[in-house]
Design a protein that fits this description.
The complex is a heterodimer of chains A (125) and B (487). Chain A is α/β, with parallel strands linked by helices and 125 residues long. Chain A is built from five helices and five strands, in the order βαβαβαβαβα. With 487 residues, chain B is of the alpha+beta class. Chain B folds into two domains: 246 residues, Chemotaxis protein chec, CATH 3.40.1550; 185 residues, CBS-domain (Roll). Chain B has 17 helices and twelve strands. In chain B, strands 1, 2, 3, 4, 5, 6 and 7 form a seven-stranded antiparallel sheet that branches. Chain B has a three-stranded mixed sheet with strand order 8-9-10. In chain B, strands 11-12 form a two-stranded antiparallel sheet. Classes of the chains: A alpha/beta (125), B alpha+beta (487). The complex binds magnesium ion (MG).
Chain lengths: 125, 487
């Protein structure tokens, strides 16, 4: 069954790259939305929850970690939403702490369609 | 200089020489391009030396480092690199990328600043990974702190954090992306980044000196300028399988080599001529800069004998010559939409060389689009096929044929197709099409609309047809058959 996706990144270029890479990975989403920071993403999720969020870490206004905390604490309608962080940060300590806050996965930039396939397909059924 | 500081310098250069190719590999995988780099010998450099190397606009990604390195270093790309990489990142069509490389306006570059920043982020991601894997906890953090587009020599203190006369460590490199012109880049390490690292107190010194990853004994020499890393058409041709190497299974590597050789051979002379012209133009450019340059700050290799002064930069391939339309025939204002063949033959990457031969015969064409569901992934030409199949399938060699030769007909097209594919839009004018074919080789350009759907193809033959509609040209002889490449 097709799923819905929200891409959160402060860079419009990176959002485009993510959309293209998702498409190349062969994963099927019937709805793809975009947000430019964590606060905007929270607003979108309140209005309409999605199945999967791909979220940058470093963003102005509300960064990715704060966004994960808020979604998990304040948005019960998104209890089943899977949040995958996408970031250049590759320190294991940081990745562990983000996963502890409630993210479901972590993809480092630069990424490939194969990497998206591998990380997202477990959440597609 | 302290031994420890020198160790850190050497180890940094060594890891940087790993990080740049790793970055190219990452970008290749991410954007489906072929990106390569050749690292040149590192040296002490000054701002005026930088100006001589980079001349025009540059893009600079500044990276703050914590851990073994402490401070900020900078990765710099020349004008060609700026527009090529940003163009690839924002997925501009190829002819548009060539156009912006040629025009090279600062306004256009500023419009791409988001792409440059993201490129810097991705680069930092790669560098962080390489340093972390090698140095483990001794490396703490790399983070991009800013991007700069312009001429850093106008204000080196604020852009690079180095004085106009100050020496810094510089690791130059050249890069290529697909068949766009080669460009120059490099990494600038201000001296303070090593000093502060080495001065971080006795305990840190002990930690660093005790780390096997940083011991000078283990440091391999910094890569020196190597020409064997660049793949010249001639070298590729040598790599093509010889008829003698008959035991080889039809695998991806052998067939890819053969396909590349077939494609490369076709355009060798033209590329050599073009490279020679580029080099000439660059030499003239170099001279002009030298003449106009103010008194150049003397390089002082004696001050730091462990690091040589920078050699004179290699002439980088000129970025301007490529996309300049050079023709004036009135027909050349026609567009791709007017001359293209609207029917293109299609197969999937999983289909075989035999399927391609059949398809080419059925459609009387020399080119097959490869993709799934109308999404173009590659293109297979008759010369790709000829390069893939065993020459022993030709009737003249029939008595030497072995079963393995027949197996070459079963090679999947995914292994021999040319990718990524250069495409044009229905609005692309004939002069740009001709120029593209002349400069980059390839005799078939798929025409795609804004949504990326293939609307048709333009082949060199279509162009000949347009040009021979002129009345003073008569035709004689029969039209060529679309021959099976084996006979
Ligand atoms: Mg960001």
């Amino acid at each position: 069954m097709a799923k819905s996706l929200l891409i959160v990144d402060d860079s419009a270029t990176m959002r485009k790259i993510v959309i293209r890479t998702v498409r190349m990975s062969g994963l099927d989403f019937d709805r793809t939305e975009e947000a430019g920071n964590g606060a905007e993403a929270i607003e979108k999720l309140k209005q309409s929850p999605v199945d999967i969020v791909l979220c940058d870490v470093n963003m102005p206004e509300m960064n990715g970690i704060d966004m994960v905390k808020k979604v998990r604490a304040e948005l019960p309608t998104c209890a089943n939403t899977k949040i995958i962080m996408v970031s250049t940060e590759s320190s294991q300590d940081l990745i562990d702490s983000i996963l502890r806050e409630g993210a479901n996965g972590y993809i480092t930039k630069p990424f490939t369609p194969e990497r998206f396939q591998e990380k997202l397909s477990p959440f597609m059924n | 200089m302290l031994k420890l500081e020198e160790d850190i310098r050497l180890r940094t250069l060594e890891l940087s020489a790993e990080a740049l190719p790793a970055f190219c590999e990452d970008i290749s995988g991410m954007f489906g391009v072929e990106m390569e780099t050749v690292i040149q010998p590192s040296c002490n450099e000054t701002v005026s030396g930088l100006q001589k190397r980079f001349k025009k606009l540059t893009a600079i990604n500044s990276v703050s480092a914590e851990g073994v390195l402490n401070g900020t270093f900078h990765v710099v790309f020349d004008q060609g690199g700026l527009f090529t990489l940003a163009g690839v990142v924002v997925m501009l069509p190829e002819n548009r990328i060539k156009e912006v490389i040629r025009q090279g306006s600062k306004e256009e570059a500023q419009r791409m600043s988001d792409a440059i920043a993201e490129l810097g982020n991705m680069m930092v991601g790669t560098w962080d990974r390489v340093f972390r894997e090698a140095l483990r906890k001794k490396h703490r953090h790399f983070k991009q702190t800013g991007t700069f587009i312009g001429k850093p020599w106008d204000n080196p203190e604020s852009v690079l954090g180095v004085g106009a006369q100050e020496e810094f460590l510089f690791m130059p490199a050249t890069m290529t992306v697909d068949s766009y012109p080669a460009f120059t880049c490099g990494v600038i390490f201000p001296s303070s980044i090593f000093e502060t690292a080495a001065e971080n107190g006795p305990q840190q010194k002990q930690d660093v000196a005790g780390d096997e990853a940083l011991r000078a004994d283990d440091v391999v020499p910094v890569p020196v300028e190597g020409d064997d890393e660049l793949t010249e058409p001639a070298a590729l041709e040598e790599a093509a399988p010889e008829p003698d190497e008959r035991a080889a299974e039809p695998g991806p590597e052998a067939t890819e080599d053969a396909a590349i050789a077939a494609a490369g051979g076709e355009d060798e002379t033209m590329e050599q001529e073009s490279a020679a012209a580029d080099a000439q133009e660059q030499a003239a450019d170099d001279e002009a800069v030298e003449e106009n340059a103010p008194a150049v700050v003397a390089e002082t290799p004696a001050a730091k004998p462990q690091q040589p002064a920078c050699p004179r930069p290699e002439p980088a391939a000129a970025v301007d010559a490529a996309a300049q339309p050079r023709f004036t025939h009135p027909m050349l204002t026609m567009t791709a939409a007017q001359i293209m063949q609207k029917e293109a033959a299609w197969l999937t990457p999983a289909d075989t060389v035999q399927d391609a031969i059949n398809k080419m015969q059925q459609h009387e064409t020399g080119y097959v689009m490869i993709g799934d569901g109308g999404v173009l992934q590659g293109i297979v030409s008759r010369s790709d096929v000829a390069g893939a199949v065993s020459p022993y399938l030709r009737p003249v060699f029939a008595k030497w044929k072995r079963p393995l030769d027949d197996a070459t007909l079963q090679i999947k097209l995914t292994w021999i197709m040319t990718r990524p594919v250069r495409t044009i839009t229905p609005q692309t004018s004939l002069d740009v099409i001709v120029d593209t074919m002349l400069h980059f080789g390839g005799r078939c350009l798929p025409v795609v609309d804004q949504a990326g759907a293939v609307q048709g193809i333009v082949t060199a033959f279509d162009i000949f047809k347009v040009l021979t509609t002129s009345r003073d040209v008569s035709q004689t002889g029969r039209m060529p058959q679309t021959a099976i490449p084996l006979v």
